[in-house]
Amino acid sequence: MGTGIPLLASLSSGNVRAVVERNARVIRNQNWILLVSGFVEPVLYLLAMGLGMGALVGAVEGPRGAPIEYAAYIAPALLATSAMNGAIYDSTWNVFFKLRLSKLYQAMLQTSLGPLDVALGEILMALFRGLLYALGFLGVLTVLGLVTSWWAVLMVPAALLVAFGFAAFGMAVTSYLTTFQQMDLINFALLPMFLFSATLYPIEIYPEWIQWLIMAMPLWHGVELMRQLSVGHFDASTWVHVLYFVGMTVLGLALTTLRLRRLFLR
Amino acid sequence: MSEVEPALAPSGRAPDHAEMAVRARRSGVWFYAETVLRGMRAFALPIALYAVAQPLLYMIALGVGLGALVDRGVGSVAGVDYLVFVAPALLVSTVVMSVSAEMTFPVMSGFKWNRLYYGPVASPLEPSQVALGHFTAVMLRFLAQGFVFWLVMLAFGAAPAGWAQSFLVVPIGMLAAAGFGAPLQAYAATLDDGFQFSLIQRFVVMPMFLFSGTFFPLSAMPGYLHWIGWISPVWHGTELARWASYGASVGLPMAAVHLLFLLTLAALGLRWSVRTYTRRLRS
């Protein structure tokens, strides 16, 4: 069975469902507390930094230029960060394990499944987790009274978009890594992104060239997108942020598929 | 030439078995610590990158970046610049956070995955020496990491107490790491499955990092959350480190409490470790 699109016929049998179903069964048999409690981390950050730091910082300038509470300032950034972390965790450590240690993909590709099926199946799982966490976090924000606009509902699909970009790209990067030691370098890319991407304070305090560097990084676009959605303020830059992640997703998916084909279907 | 030459093995290149056994019994903790440290060499690049870049990133992002917001807000915290306030706390909490990685999966794999602990115990090494040797190696690593962090603090001018007094943040950081690392090592030694580590990371390490007065004084939080600081090795270490780096007033009785708390945790943790290692490796 092909996909109907001749170009993709060699890459996919159109049976992504099989991969998703397999992962869903694993989740059901494993520790679900671990999966569900994932949304606790950004909530802890929000409570600690929002309440504690908020007392020291006071109000900050929001996307409209009007001052907003510090907790309301960092909340969307933390949602973007947790979307990134969740997606990266699923698409790096998880994928590394299946690729290099348990050789799961090798087994999958011996069946009628194509590399695109495997890649999409794994990424959809990462997105499912991302969806759970985004919904949980949005619920907490609502309870804390930090949601002031109906536009904030769009933060859920936005979180999925951010997660999609990171998951697709993370899986592509992981396919090049062969040892645990190299895996550690992934954390090494995430920490500065988290610390500098306007998550906890605006980037304007840095010299312009550093600002450009930060603006080239994906997380900054995720943070800005979320922040705009949280108050319902949009301008041309909103589209830049969205397109950034669309591009990242397409590029990551293409790269991952080609890599899996190269690794297994020689 | 009155000294007796040690007996040599038949090859002539190594001491005799009996002689080696005596040495292993005597300094087995160091032998095992050396093994662990040599194992870390595979991760030398990430470890070195982390040791240098982590303090730099945190100091720039939180000290300078977040500090700019604090300056606009309340101005200063506890009478000092925000950078000075947060730097010693960052040292303590980053070291404690890293120790939690070093004392979980590596410990469990010693029993479970690569079973590295079983070889030494088949030699004259005691299980207790393996436990303490692993602990020693990890502490040496974080002594080095704390030292690098201290140098970064000096470079940022974030330790106004001067280098002689502020150097104490290095052993204080290690002591805090011991206060958390020893009990964690003992707990990890009892496990057969790794999923608990993620729960510990999520429900113990993260809250400890965020609510231990690292980024803001405990008093900035509502009173019903203060207990998290009181039972947290990070808070006790941070209070001591703040005294060392900028002379925050702690008072002798409180300083004694902080020290005793950390030492007790470390001692109890080590005792528990030794017992667990002995039980598992001798069974």
From TrEMBL, chain B:
<feature type="transmembrane region" description="Helical">
    <location>
        <begin position="245"/>
        <end position="270"/>
    </location>
</feature>
<dbReference type="Pfam" id="PF01061">
    <property type="entry name" value="ABC2_membrane"/>
</dbReference>
<dbReference type="InterPro" id="IPR000412">
    <property type="entry name" value="ABC_2_transport"/>
</dbReference>
<feature type="transmembrane region" description="Helical">
    <location>
        <begin position="142"/>
        <end position="163"/>
    </location>
</feature>
<dbReference type="GO" id="GO:0046677">
    <property type="term" value="P:response to antibiotic"/>
</dbReference>
<keyword id="KW-1133">Transmembrane helix</keyword>
<protein>
    <recommendedName>
        <fullName>Transport permease protein</fullName>
    </recommendedName>
</protein>
<dbReference type="GO" id="GO:0043190">
    <property type="term" value="C:ATP-binding cassette (ABC) transporter complex"/>
</dbReference>
<feature type="transmembrane region" description="Helical">
    <location>
        <begin position="47"/>
        <end position="70"/>
    </location>
</feature>
<keyword id="KW-0812">Transmembrane</keyword>
<feature type="transmembrane region" description="Helical">
    <location>
        <begin position="203"/>
        <end position="225"/>
    </location>
</feature>
<feature type="transmembrane region" description="Helical">
    <location>
        <begin position="169"/>
        <end position="191"/>
    </location>
</feature>
<comment type="similarity">
    <text>Belongs to the ABC-2 integral membrane protein family.</text>
</comment>
<keyword id="KW-1003">Cell membrane</keyword>
<keyword id="KW-0813">Transport</keyword>
<dbReference type="InterPro" id="IPR047817">
    <property type="entry name" value="ABC2_TM_bact-type"/>
</dbReference>
<dbReference type="InterPro" id="IPR013525">
    <property type="entry name" value="ABC2_TM"/>
</dbReference>
<keyword id="KW-0472">Membrane</keyword>
<keyword id="KW-0046">Antibiotic resistance</keyword>
<dbReference type="InterPro" id="IPR051784">
    <property type="entry name" value="Nod_factor_ABC_transporter"/>
</dbReference>
<dbReference type="GO" id="GO:0140359">
    <property type="term" value="F:ABC-type transporter activity"/>
</dbReference>
<feature type="transmembrane region" description="Helical">
    <location>
        <begin position="82"/>
        <end position="105"/>
    </location>
</feature>
<feature type="domain" description="ABC transmembrane type-2">
    <location>
        <begin position="46"/>
        <end position="280"/>
    </location>
</feature>
